[in-house]
Structure formats: C-alpha cells, structure tokens
Amino acid sequence: MSALGLFVRATGRSWWQARYRDGAIVSEWGTLPGISARVLLPGPMRDSGWRSRWEETTKDGMVGLRLLCPNGEVGELEASRDHALFQFKVGVASVTQGHSISAHVIGAIDDDDGACSCYAWEPPGRLVRFSDNAHWFTYQKVGPLGIENLGLKV
Fold it and tell me: What angle do CA 108, 114, 115 make, to 5 degrees?
C-alpha cells in the first residue's frame, strides 16, 4: 500500500482530492488552516474540530475529484466543464452526543438539468456509486443542494 493509502487508512476517515486541468492536485488535508500536511497525525485530527476549506478551493479548472476511503477504495469523477464538481458531508450534530458523519459525498454535474454522478463513503466501510440531481438530492434525503455555496454552475 502507498504512503498515501496508509495515511488515509490510519485516519479512519475519507478525504477528497481535486485535480486541475494544469495537472495540479489539491488534497483536503492541504486546505486545513494553519496545518502542514507534513505534520498531520491521525489521532489529533479525529477530534480536533479542524475543518477543511472546500468553499475556498478554486473551482476554475477543476476537472477531477477523488474520494479516498480508509478501506483502500477510491471513487473518482471527471467533469467536462468548470464548476461542475462538488463534495459535502452528511451528518448530525447533537449537544449531548457531539457529531457523526453518515456519508461523505462527491459529485459531478452531468447536464444542464442538474443530473449528477456521485460516490459516497458510508462509514464504517462502504463506498457506493449512484446518480442523483442537484436540484433535489434524494440520497439520504438531503434535498436541494446549496449550488452557490458549493461553487457550482448548473
């Protein structure tokens, strides 16, 4: 297994990775504010409260998106246009029980009607592929996606 695969497995969670037309790759852990990827350790990450910055990641020139899963699986999507790729997490937050993630979703808008191809990591160990629509996302009853918040153009 690669060093990257070992890192993802050790964290026990999924991570996104974006690929750009010019060959650049931006990884989710590289967007954590004030954190260097060289010093990320799995233990402190789990409960640190750090949040990645998808909303601040440029969507211009983004042509591919990967979902790296702790079981070694990878979901990968490509887009033919800018501002067509998205990612988000589905979860619940409770004052008494904290937060839990039920899915980490990546998607690619396929057409002007909002149809999209998606992958979701469902902890503790399942990667699923599905189709949905950004205007009314039925997966886990998410509902309409915040198109502007995700940086999408349909």
Answer: 65
pLDDT band at 48 (very low <50, low <70, confident <90, very high): very low
Say how far apart CA 145 and CA 125 lie, in whole Å: 25
Mean pLDDT of 20-46: 68
Per-residue model confidence (pLDDT) at position 146: 86
Show the CA angle centred on residue 95, arms to residues 90 and 101, nearest 5°: 20
User: What whole-number distance in Å separates Cα of residue 57 and Cα of residue 14?
Assistant: 18
Those residues whose C-beta lies under 8 Å from the C-beta of residue 108, and which sit 6 or more positions away, are: 65, 77, 78, 79, 84, 85, 86, 116, 117, 118
Q: Which two tokens stand for residue 144?
A: 């309409």
